[in-house]
Structures are given as structure tokens and as C-alpha cells.
Amino acid sequence: MPTSIYYRFQQRFRVSAREAFVWCTNYAPDDHALMAEENAIRKVESLTGRTVILTDTFLVGTESRVEKQKLVQLYPEMLLWTSTHLSGPAMHSQFIYQIIAQGEHESCLDFTGIFLDHTHEALRESDIVSLTEKECKNDQAAWELLAKAMEQELCNE
After folding, report:
1. Which of 156, 149, 155, 154 lies closest to 34 in space, CA to CA?
2. Within 10 A of 77 (CB to CB), how many other CB atoms are there?
3. In terms of CATH, what superfamily is 3-155?
4. Contact call for residues 9 and 136 (beta carbons, < 8 A)
5. Contact, 109 vs 139, CB < 8 A?
6. To which H or E segment does residue 20 belong?
């Protein structure tokens, strides 16, 4: 049985909420370049205007591949989207992203994650706390990189 890891954080953006939402949900095959993931391949399959399946394949080591498939549901009227992992190491985990306006040219991502850890058996409470901190720190660091890329792209146009 997986262990459920719940965490939240916020990331500020120096762009409007609508601009941030559009930028964050404009999926492209080369998205991994923003995260310095050079050994990644992304397939984007649009099912409807609000539903996308992302299939990310990462090369691990010299020959091993990890594939992660995510179902993304978009709620543009609420500046919100969800990402549910359909396969991969985080299978059935779900992440909720909402952009909140903080003035005309500033916004904030409100991130909520439910990460299902399938790799460990029975974890002690202290191990769950450590894993929660690690997952939150990793996701926060990723969003700091994304915020910089977004601001560079949108503020220099």
C-alpha cells in the first residue's frame, strides 16, 4: 500500500495571473529544456480543449527509461489545473495548481500535492516527515526555475 504525502507551497510570479496561467498550461514537446532535463522526451496529446495527456520519457543512466503519463485537466475560468499521474513512479498522485492574482502585474501559484509513494513499505512517522519535506523542496525548486523562465520570457517581450 502506498504512503500518502501531502504538501503545499506558493510561488510568486511577476506577471499577471492570466499570463501566468496561459504560460503554465501551454504544453509543448520541449518543455523539459526549461528544467535542464536534456534526456527527456515529451509527447502532448490534446483530448479536448480542457484535457491533455502528457507522456514524459526520461533516460536514466545509459539504457534505462522511465515513462510518466499524466492526465491534465484545465479549468481556465478558475485559473486552475490538475495533473494526475496515470503511470510511473508517482502513479495515482495528484497535483493541484491555482494561479491567484496579486495585483495587476503579479500573481502567485498555490500548489497542493498528494504524492503517493509506492517505493517504500511501512514508513515511520519521521520518515514520512522527511519524505514530505524532500518532495516539497524539490517541487518548490522546480517552480522557482519555472518562475524565472516565465518572467524572462514574458517580461522581455
Report:
1. 149
2. 6
3. START domain (3.30.530.20)
4. yes
5. no
6. helix 17-24
pTM: 0.90
CB atoms within 10 A of CB 99: 26
Sign of CA dihedral 18, 24, 27, 29: positive
Strands 51-60 and 40-46: antiparallel
- 27 Cα distance to chain centroid: 12
In the chain, where the domains are located: 3-155
CA distances from 157 to 118, 134, 152 (A): 43, 35, 9
**What are the helix (H) ranges across 25-157?**
125-155
Residue 54 near residue 72 (C-beta atoms within 8 A): yes
Segment 88-106, tens digit of pLDDT:
889 999 999 999 999 899 9
